[in-house]
Amino acid sequence: MASEATATKTAARSDEAPIIQMRKVDKFYGDFHVLRNIDLSVTRGERIVICGPSGSGKSTLIRCLNQLEEHQSGEIVIDGTTVHAGLRGIEDVRREIGMVFQSFNLFPHLTALENCTLAPMKVRGIPRAEAEAAARVMLERVHIPEQAMKFPIQLSGGQQQRVAIARSLCMNPKIMLFDEPTSALDPEMVSEVLDVMVELAESGMTMLVVTHEMGFARKVADRVIFMDAGEIVEVAPPEQFFRAPENERTRKFLGQILHTAGH
Amino acid sequence: MRELGPNEIIFILAAVRWTLLLSLVAFLGGALGGALVALARTSEIKGLRLISNGYIKLFQGTPLLMQLFLAFFVPGLFGWSVDPWTAAALGLSLHASAFLGEIWRGAIEVVPRGQWEAATSLGLRYTPKMALIIVPQAIRIAIPPTIGFLVQLIKGTSLASIIGFVELTRAAQVINNATFRPFTIFALVALVYFLICWPLSAYSKRMERKLLVAAR
């Protein structure tokens, strides 16, 4: 006989329930209102692309999900757990959420392989041999198995970012967050990273991607979100988002970035 | 008056071991204290930051000689008599804790924010994050200024002579009082300090250059 609490938990974990639920989330930096009344729910396996002008709050939004940034009001529920400032055991939530940064943030004193094995060994307690085997599989998956013993400084930007993706995947996360993963890359390296992300999307990973790569959005996104001044202005499937954006601000933004991208 | 002969010279040189031992003890004590101060200074807990900051300010803002006097005389007020060796080791350790703490705080804070964030996002808790990600990167940055401070500390042990601890400087004073050959004696002592400190400074400079090259 399941207690009410267990029943609720089971319901929250079922496949239909959203894996991410944000309700009326607000965030301030001092007086600056960074996130305004954000409502967003993401289902398992869904791929979301978030775009918007710089300073619109899109990075802040995904950084609130694993609480690299704290929100001041509203509710964020990740796979049944409500996260907030000072939550004990926040690490248990974080380890289920992989994050890829604009500036890669690989650990410079560790090899590519060690970057990938550190968290599985220290956070999940996986033995070294097993962690290394898994890491090699992941490095293969991002197409750089031959770079396993190299240090980050010996790798190109595109290779570093792919190691960073592998490092996150080695934790077997339920959600992957990408914070402008190709913005710091030389143009010729963008596609090697995007290809890996497309393959990841095809594998059914739940992904939230902050990016201006509209080709990527068209190809893999289930929904595209446009943010401006801390608000979610428009949410639509890519087809509709690019063909017939409803909001004036979205149209203006798309005009600007598609123009600069040479479309 | 006594002549300055081989015995006197040997007496002075033999006292170098006390200078070195005092430096070593003070450095180890300071490293332990300094690590705590640095961690407290970079802590998320405000109280720890305030206390450690006050500690650093206090020891950086007062002369080492006063710190040694206090370490020597204050325990007496509570009825504990401390010998010059204990007082010097304690005073210099507290002094070194403040300076090393501040140097290492700087080194920890120079590690880019993104390194903390990457480690945090992987679910690492404070201890493994510091031990495996932040500190190994901070150490590389901290080595040159740490050795630089060690040189200051070795020279600083000469002040322990004033509270009566017989190390190199005190031994020289004793012999000078008996032989009155100040130029020869103190030139010799200065040379000994130089021979200890100069290689360390040179090593520190070399490490610094290596780091600069690596940072390019």
Q: What can be said about the biggest beta sheet of chain B? A: none
Radius of gyration of chain A, whole Å = 19 Å
- How large, in whole angstroms, is the Cα Rg of chain B? 21 Å
The level of helicity of chain A is 25-40%
Give a description of the structure:
The complex is a heterodimer of chains A (263) and B (216). Chain A is of the alpha/beta class and 263 residues long. Helix content of chain A is 40%, strand content 23%. Chain A is built from ten helices and ten strands. Chain A has helices at 4-13, 58-65, 90-94, 112-123, 128-141, 157-169, 187-202, 214-220, 238-243, 248-260; strands spanning 20-29, 32-42, 47-51, 73-78, 81-83, 97-100, 175-179, 206-210, 223-228, 231-236. In chain A, helix 7 links the parallel strand 7 and strand 8 (206-210). The termini of chain A are far apart. Chain B has 216 residues and is an all-alpha fold. The longest helix of chain B is centred in the C-terminal third of the chain and has 34 residues, at 182-215. Chain B is built from nine helices and no strands. The model of chain B has no long low-confidence stretch (mean pLDDT 94). Classes of the chains: A alpha/beta (263), B mainly alpha (216). Chains A and B meet through helix 3, strand 6, helix 4 and helix 6 of A and helix 6 and helix 7 of B.
